[in-house]
TrEMBL record, chain C:
Organism, as annotated: Planobispora takensis
GO molecular function, a single term: ABC-type transporter activity
PANTHER family documented for this protein: INTEGRAL MEMBRANE PROTEIN-RELATED, MEMBRANE PROTEIN
Source organism phylogeny: Bacteria, Bacillati, Actinomycetota, Actinomycetes, Streptosporangiales
Sequence ranges of Low complexity compositional bias: 17-36
Transmembrane segments: 73-94, 118-141, 175-198, 218-241, 248-268, 303-321
Protein's UniProt name: ABC transporter permease
Keywords of this entry: Membrane, Transmembrane, Transmembrane helix
Biased composition (Basic and acidic residues): 1-16
Pfam family, one: ABC2_membrane_2
Coiled coil regions in record: none
């Protein structure tokens, strides 16, 4: 403004006001920029950081690194699932978010400390609560602060046994290492493999393997695995469905450090006043919620009856099953958890669409990644394929 | 006095140039004011084309060219709603003008607010204080807000200000318990917290009883006698007439006239002085007045009226007695300032309040 | 110069600087502001009190007004009493409540109060930070500008002249200090109650690790600072709303309603992706102090969110207040 000008100025207010409001606008833009620019800056900076590698080189390096075992590290894993389950009721109470069963939907953060063989700590933080799995040497503890309960886990704690058990106990909270290995095993002729060297995950330069199924009937568009450029540890796994631009499932580090974590992380002494229990892994799994329990029981029942049709990306699992079993089992339990499980089952069935063909008729449930076909003759077909492919598989008795 | 020409110019402009605003807001130059500013700022307040248009298009103040000489008691006169308070708010930097510039104490505003306002005491639209604080604590609060006020002398200055408005006894009483008059006086005390070169008082006698009004007038005169410029707004002509050395007249957002009050008085002497004779013998009296050569002789119910002109009233009395008219009363009616202002503003003033 | 000489001699002390300047219409050190109250510091620096002292004086006046105001004292009293109530209730009815709380799966923190008095502090804060503490801060910060405008005192403060930027900064600082005082009061009240009613000793963290009592006190200090930072962000929001109105209760109500609405949004599962951007979501982040190791990354993110809210709201408040016509 021109206070010195003797002449009256025109519109001094409006100009002054515009300048003044420029400040909050600039601040807001700055904040928005800081939120949005992170990935952008990472992408721009990431370009020249790593030497080019072919898929074979990369896979070899990664497998070699996997053979020698991962380096000590710590970090925060973020898992986001958007399977597109129809109308899944929210089964989370105030403390429900720390229950591993809650990992099925939404996004969750898991802290990981890895100090070498037999030294693992996983922490799932909730509001004013925390669930910890601490494996240190020959001891393993499950600590649930909400119940003030420490559970000593009995049984074989060798890494192999643990790795075999863990996916069952914590079905979705697996590390990228395990998931990547699964994916790598499938890399056969049915897959188009690509490699880029300009990814940035958790602030680290990374290679990204892109695995895309060639079979058109697969619901999976592609699976992307980001491998750390230095250690070849998988930093992120993303599964993209054909129907969506955002990953249907993603697990990856939001922060990671390849330095040995403090040894205190792998020791645990039950605090005074806590309830101390001793249980085997199976027992713990049973306690974690109705869903894993049912799944496990059913799994055990059906183990002998499962058949697979097809191979690779379009494998379809066929199990004997009936709609009545599902609802009856769900309603058979007691407590709110089985109620919500029943509600889930009902909601799922309601969303199912009838389908019929030369093989018979049934109901099909389709999510972004998985299709399920319940045939009227008592079979359950599951696969990451289109319902048509399921129907085709149903025809091959 | 420099304001001489301006009174007439202003009044003429105000009267015959209704669409002055349309002729160009902010283009009405005030050369005398600008010259004086550069010479040494004898003006305490100068505004040039000061305009406030509120959202919705309502023009509260329209192209105001105000010049308040230092050391004057400037009466800012106008009916309620004529833009006086908006002008004062603009002068004090509370409201941003839509157009125009202004200077206070020789400094361009609003840039010089931090330098100028500590030397300006203000009473804007009635008193406003914290009801749960005592009178003294309230003054301390406002004193703390002034970055130029010295905290070491705060108690002394607050004590003096309270003493000056006669509130020393009530200093520790909560403001909530103050009467309307006490509140008004406390507001004046707040305006007197420091050594001031300019006092801006918006309707200082509003809500006061006659006694309080007299006290405020006396106080204003006392302050002015110290050399402080006082800019006092009022809708009461009588008040302005009794306190002020200069007058500015507002009408619907425009300044229609300003100048020394003597100018207005002189203007009013241009009007005819009337003589009114109370008598049962109206015909005789009329004959005498006509015989004396007076113009505009009229008779009414028990009275005869004529323009006195330059004739001495005592001559009229003598002639009437000689003629044998029974004179019950005789009055010389000089035109009042009010007549002048009514003519300027086209409206009457609330003479008694 | 004759006019100047008529100015009474009293005006010669300390502040004649401007009146003598009549000889030249010297331009003041002017900022670009239309109502340019900003350069106060530059001008007043040469005066007797000094810029820092005058800021402190106004701040002291502001704080005195806030902490002596009966309404605010009552709010602080309520905040201080609630930890005592929680403590007494836990002491008398500990078993049934913790059993019930455990059934809901959310009683973790409460069950630990009976075992260790220090946990009453965390429990009390986790309860109060949801609504009562924000309400108290909203009352003070929402009232800051709107209250003065509504009472008409704002025009006298500004003609003093307090300076708009200076007044706003002091008002904000005062609201932050009030928030800090309220949080500290809750912590101290809960600490005293907890130590009187329950055993004290080493503290079990959420991660199951045990730390010594003294370190527990230190972590309470961290919690107080973190929660105060969250309240400071809320105070900035309330202050921005306060500059939009002349009705204090309107600004206060708007702030409280905003807090409640945002909290409701925060628990709607379909909007869970919004959570990291919500102010209220991060208030509870102080539980990171109770983890081992301290969840510095999460709490750091919380502080960044607080800073972002403070910066945006603060600049909106500034833009609005410095450009506002004071017509009350």
């Amino acid at each position: 403004m021109s206070e010195r000008t003797p002449r009256p100025t025109r519109q001094p207010t409006r100009r002054g006001r515009a300048v003044r409001w420029g400040v909050p606008i600039a601040v807001t833009a700055l904040v928005a920029g800081a939120i949005g620019a992170g990935p952008v800056i990472a992408a721009v900076q990431g370009d020249p950081a790593l030497p080019e590698r072919t898929a074979e080189q990369l896979l070899a390096d990664a497998l070699r690194a996997a053979e020698t075992g991962p380096r000590p590290m710590s970090g925060t894993l973020l898992q986001t699932a958007s399977f597109g389950l129809p109308g899944l009721p929210q089964a989370a109470g105030p403390g429900g978010s720390t229950s591993p069963a809650a990992l099925l939907a939404g996004s969750h953060e898991l802290k990981v400390w890895y100090g070498g063989e037999n030294k693992v700590r996983l922490a799932l933080a909730g509001r004013m609560s925390e669930t910890d799995l601490i494996v240190g040497g020959d001891q393993a503890w499950l600590w649930e602060s909400a119940d003030n309960t420490a559970t000593r886990i009995k049984g074989d704690l060798s890494p192999e046994a643990h790795a075999a058990q863990a996916p069952k106990a914590l079905p979705t909270a697996t590390t990228p290492q395990q998931l990547a290995q699964e994916v790598l095993e499938r890399a056969e002729e049915g897959t188009a493999i690509g490699v880029t060297a300009n990814e940035k995950v958790a602030g680290r330069d990374a290679y990204q393997l892109t695995l895309a199924p060639k079979d058109a009937s697969s619901l999976v568009k592609e699976v992307k695995v980001a491998l750390d450029g230095e250690t070849f540890v998988p930093l992120r796994v993303q599964v993209y469905a054909k129907s969506a631009a955002e990953p249907a499932f993603e697990v990856g580090f939001t922060s990671v450090a390849f330095t040995p974590p403090a040894p205190e992380n792998f020791t645990f002494t039950p605090p005074p006043g806590a309830t101390v229990k001793e249980q085997s892994l199976t027992e713990i799994g049973r306690e974690l919620g109705a869903d894993p329990q049912q799944r496990r029981e059913r799994g055990e029942e059906l183990k002998g009856d499962v058949k697979t049709v097809g191979e690779g990306w379009t494998t379809v699992a066929v199990l004997p099953f009936s709609v009545e079993d599902l609802t009856a089992e769900s309603a058979g339990g007691d407590g709110s958890e089985s109620e919500s499980a029943a509600a889930t089952a009902e909601a799922l069935l309601e969303s199912a669409t009838p389908i019929s063909g030369p093989w018979g008729s049934g109901k099909v449930i389709r999510t972004k990644l998985v299709s399920v076909l319940l045939t009227d003759d008592g079979r359950l077909l599951v696969g990451a394929v289109t319902p048509e492919k399921l129907a085709e598989a149903a025809g091959r008795k | 006095m420099p304001g001489d020409t301006r009174l007439l110019a202003g009044s003429r402009e105000g009267r015959d140039a209704g669409p002055r605003g349309a002729a160009g807001l902010g283009e009405s130059p005030v050369p005398p004011a600008r010259e004086r500013t550069t010479e040494g700022a004898p003006e305490a307040i100068v505004t040039r084309g000061l305009t406030k248009r509120f959202r919705g298009g309502q023009v509260a103040v329209d192209g105001l060219d105000l010049a308040v000489p230092r050391g004057s008691v400037f009466g800012f006169l106008g009916p309620n709603g004529s833009g006086k308070t908006t002008t004062i708010r603009m002068l004090l930097g509370l409201v941003t003008p839509t157009e125009g510039t202004w200077e206070m104490l020789g400094r361009p505003m609003p840039g010089a607010i931090p330098a100028v306002l500590p030397r300006v005491g203000a009473l804007v639209e009635g008193p406003a204080f914290y009801p749960y604080l005592s009178g003294e604590a309230n003054l301390r609060r406002y004193d703390a807000a002034d970055p130029a006020a010295d905290p070491r002398t705060a108690s002394r200055r607050i004590g003096l200000a309270l003493e000056r408005v006669g509130l020393t006894a009530a200093a520790r009483k909560r403001y909530r318990a103050y009467s309307l008059g006490m509140r008004q006086r406390l507001a004046i005390a707040a305006a007197l917290l420091g050594p001031r070169e300019l006092l801006v008082l918006d309707e200082p006698t509003n809500g006061l009883d006659p006694q309080g009004t007299r006290e405020v007038r006396a106080l204003v005169k006392e302050i002015a006698a110290d050399g402080t410029t006082v800019f006092v707004s009022s809708h009461l002509l009588a008040e302005v007439e009794q306190m002020c050395t200069h007058v500015g007249v507002m009408r619907t957002g425009r300044l229609v006239a300003q100048g020394p009050i003597e100018e207005f008085r002189r203007l009013s002497t241009g009007e005819a002085v009337m003589i009114r004779v109370e008598t049962p013998d109206t015909d005789v009296a009329a004959a005498v007045l006509t015989g004396l050569g007076l113009a505009g002789v009229r008779t009414g119910d028990g009275e005869a009226v004529a323009e006195l002109g330059a004739l001495a009233p005592e001559r009229v009395t003598a002639e009437l007695v000689t003629a044998g008219a029974a004179v019950r009363g005789l009055a010389v009616q000089r035109p009042s300032l009010e007549d002048v202002f009514v003519r300027l503003t086209g409206e009457g003033f609330d003479v008694d309040g | 110069m004759s006019t100047v000489e008529r100015v009474r001699p009293a005006a010669e002390d300390a502040r004649t600087e401007g009146s003598a300047s009549g000889a030249a219409p010297e331009p003041a050190p002017v900022s670009a502001g239309a109502s340019g109250t900003e350069p106060g510091a530059a001008v007043s620096a040469g005066r007797a009190p000094g810029a820092v002292r005058s800021w402190l004086r106004l701040f002291g006046s502001e704080a005195g007004l806030t902490f002596r105001r009966p309404r605010n004292i009552a709010m602080l009293a309520v905040l201080a009493v609630i930890p005592v109530v929680i403590g007494v209730v836990m002491r008398l009815f500990a078993e049934p409540i913790s059993a019930e709380a455990q059934a809901e799966g959310g009683g973790g923190i409460f069950t630990q109060i009976t075992g260790n008095g220090l946990f009453l502090t965390f429990a009390a804060l986790s309860v109060l930070v949801q609504l009562l503490l924000p309400v108290a801060v909203a009352v003070v910060a929402g009232d800051a500008v709107a209250g003065e405008a509504g009472g008409g005192t704002l025009r006298y403060l500004l003609t003093a002249p307090a300076g708009r930027t200076r007044l706003l900064a002091v008002k904000y600082g005062n609201a932050v200090v009030f928030g800090l005082a309220a949080v500290s009061l809750i912590a101290v009240s809960a600490l005293v109650t907890g130590l009187v009613l329950f055993p004290a000793g080493p503290i079990t963290l959420l991660s199951g690790t045990t730390i010594p009592f003294a370190e527990g006190l230190l972590r309470i200090g961290l919690v107080v600072l973190y929660v105060s930072a969250g309240m400071a962000a809320l105070a900035a929001v309330a202050l921005a709303l306060s500059t939009l109105t002349e009705v204090a209760i309107g600004a206060i109500a708007a702030t409280v309603v905003t807090v409640i609405v945002v909290q409701v949004i925060g628990v709607i599962p379909q909007l869970s992706w919004l959570q990291p951007y919500l102010l209220t979501h991060w208030w509870n982040g102080f539980d990171g102090v109770l983890r081992d190791p301290i969840a510095t990354a999460e709490m750091g993110r919380g502080l960044l969110v607080f800073a972002a809210y403070t910066a945006i709201s603060g600049s909106v408040a500034w833009a609005r207040f410095t450009g506002k016509d004071i017509t009350s």
